[in-house]
Amino acid sequence: MLTDVLRGWGVDAMVVSNAKDARHALETQRLSLAFSEDRFDDGTYRDLLEDAALRKPGVRVVVLIHEEETYAEVLNSGAFEALPLPCSRSDIQWAVIHAASNGEKSYRPPASDRVVPFGSHKL
Q1: Residue 107 included in any domain
Q2: Percent of the chain scored above 70 by pLDDT?
Q3: Is 85's pLDDT higher than 50?
Q4: Structural domain boundaries enclosing 86
Q5: In this structure, are residues 55 and 71 in contact, taking their beta carbons and an 8 Å threshold?
Q6: Domain assignment present for 123
């Protein structure tokens, strides 16, 4: 559903299914926003937060969480936002709008920026 919502808005989205590929995307792609599951077979969202923070400008990471009890932990780790799985269309839309307007009222990601959903949950 995530990629359907993003592509429905005309957002250039790509999907990767493991931490290694997600880290590679963070290193090689021009990204403004990334959605990440909280865990992968080869790592967790924390691995991605470190790489995302090193980018200039930084990549905002929204973590899709399996357990709502981890919400505060995820935010305290540096994630931009956390959404429970399964998430709704309105949750995704809110996260994108919030990311686009957070910090800069006139923020608009350049057309070449990509939004990358990381994970294997029915994105």
Answers
A1: yes
A2: 83
A3: yes
A4: 2-118
A5: no
A6: no
The answer to whether residue 66 scores a pLDDT higher than 50 is: yes
Q: SS in 3 state form for the chain?
A: CHHHHHHHCCCCECCECCHHHHHHHHHHCCEEEEEEECEECCEEHHHHHHHHHHCCCCCEEEEEECCHHHHHHHHHCCCCEEEECCCCHHHHHHHHHHHHHCCCCCCCCCCCCEEEEECCCCC
Q: Is residue 31 part of a domain?
A: yes
- What pTM does this model have? 0.79
Each residue of 22-52: pLDDT tens digit? 999 988 888 888 999 999 999 999 989 988 8
- CA separation for the pair 31, 66 (Å, rounded): 24
Mean pLDDT of 88-93: 91
Q: What is the CATH number of the domain that holds 30?
A: 3.40.50.2300
Q: Is residue 89 part of a domain?
A: yes
Domain count, the chain: 1
